[in-house]
Amino acid sequence: MDTFNTYNAYTCLVMGLSSNLTLAWLILKGTKDEMKHYSTILLHSIVVNIVYLVVSAIVQPYTLLENGNLLMVQTGFSQHSSRIVNALLAFLWFFIFSIKIYSLSSQFVYRYLILCRKIEVTSRLLAVILLIPNIFCVIFIIMIILENEAFDGHDALIESLFHINATKHSFGFFVRKSSVIKFYSDTFMLATLALIYGIIAWCSYKLRKTFKMASQFISRSTVHELNSQISVALVVQAILPLGMVFIVVVYMGYAKISKAPQSSSAITLVAILFHWVPVINPLCTLLIVKRYRKQIVSLFKCHQESPSIAVSKATTVVVKR
């Protein structure tokens, strides 16, 4: 599992950087000036994706769950470091992970204000929109720090629960099912996720309603089409991590009720698959947004046609002689 997790993290890093940087280039260079205003918010998710990929490649975490007891194993560069260093990196990963989830609503609120309310979003207002979800992230991380029991000498318990050698594996986060704070952190996570996705659903409904009304009075212009496609791409970006989190929550609840032994492998698989979210999200955007898709295809066509063009030019020169 450790070796597979390492290769998985590095593969996601390479593919994720390629897809995210390609999308960023298309937004900055391949989008007309009059349409950049509507697609710039995608750059925020790109930055978060890249930071998440880099931190995940450094920490390389995967999660083990046994009967409600949770352990994060780390196979990255810090695996031979002290428990404090591993804990700090675990908290950093949790923080970036929470930002990635909670900041999804910021993109929908931004587009709702611009497209539905016709409000000019200043730099200060944009900063407020992006920073408000981070308050939830800070509260969540404080709860994670308080419930962490990795420093309390539970190595023997960890070995008996998860059947791993605590001296050969690095971990910076461990919480028992009997933890009181764990109940509050899980409740807080579920409540805030419900709020975040409630905002996303409401903004998506308003955006769809606005696009539908606008299509009755104007032809399907390039800007209108771009906005509609970006909205679909954002919905896909929101649904993908929600599906992963939903699977984790369901299995955690199932493990607490039935104490099923297969829950650990299921949670571990979901944790590893979650590394692919920042890889798949920009690829979905590149496929959904027609303008970006066409530019990618045109780049490949130019690359394929360039040798034939060169031969044609050379032949023309020879004929003239």
From TrEMBL:
Keyword Transmembrane helix: yes
Pfam assignment, any one: 7TM_GPCR_Srd
Keywords carried by this UniProt record: Membrane, Transmembrane, Transmembrane helix
Superkingdom of this protein's organism: Eukaryota
Bilayer-spanning residue ranges: 6-28, 40-64, 84-104, 125-146, 187-205, 226-254, 266-289
Gene3D superfamilies per UniProt: Rhodopsin 7-helix transmembrane proteins (1.20.1070.10)
Listed name of the protein: Serpentine type 7TM GPCR chemoreceptor srd domain-containing protein
Source organism per UniProt: Ditylenchus destructor
